[in-house]
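fyi for ur records
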Amino acid sequence: MSNLEQDPRETVCGGRADGAEGPVHELLAGREVVLGGTRGMKVARTLPGRERRMVGAWCFLDDYGPEPATMSVGPHPHTGLQTVTWLLEGQVLHRDSLGSEQLISPGGLNLMTAGRGISHAEESVVADAVIHGVQLWVALPGASRHIDPAFEHHAVLPVLTTPGVTVTVIAGELAGLVSPATVHSPLVGAELAFDDQGSITLPLRPDFEYAVLALSGDIDADGAHLAPGPLLYLGCGRSELVLAARRAGRVLLLGGEPFEEEIVMWWNFVGRGHEEIERFRKEWEEGAAFGTVQGTAIPRIPAPPLPNARLKPRGRRR
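which gave:
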């Protein structure tokens, strides 16, 4: 799943000078976005946001469901990023221009590396079935952003189990567990599943910035109450994080070394400036460079028009 807005916002972010402070509590409300037209699936988008656009290299976060929905996302392009698909409920079929075809189920990780360019499509297996999940993007650093596109699926991920809490390491490393997912910058992504009254103290890296998102339940994070919806940004400078559930639920933990480079995000592209984004759009509209997604009957998605103004840098946060 991707950014299907027909009037997408330009987002330029990155750069350590505008990066994370020491430990903070910033509650970042998301905005509702409808994917696939007025009757499409609704998502809550907390990254990029008005105030905070990145957490480490994590630059995009959509949370959708749980609700009956039909995902029908036709072929569309990506550059300069990795897509991370993580489901809690339901199933989605992924197809891409490399010839990959993969059924995504809860607990399995889909990781697609766009690099210099890829296209893909995603659709529900059962129409109007309950679906719940998150879609994330990871910005690729300059040394990796033009690599060949790639796809990987991991049905088994490292898991830490303590009384009342199960931690699944989706990407990067946490508490000595390392995900098999390929990453190109220091980061971590993990899901924590809590029983009622479950709690855990996680070791953190002080040089990373972190954020947590409650996916369900009723959670306290570093003493702050967190219900599903907003993203709680925690900043840098922490060596541990205490999480506790008032009632059973799930939490997404994101973290990473503050991203050094400024990036421009527009539609489904991550680049470094206006001319580059303009070229990506032109190549998609001309049908070149991004390959063909086979096996789907969903129409190809045209790129929206570029804004009248040039895409300009604004820094990691407003």
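The chain has a mean pLDDT of 92. thats all i got for now
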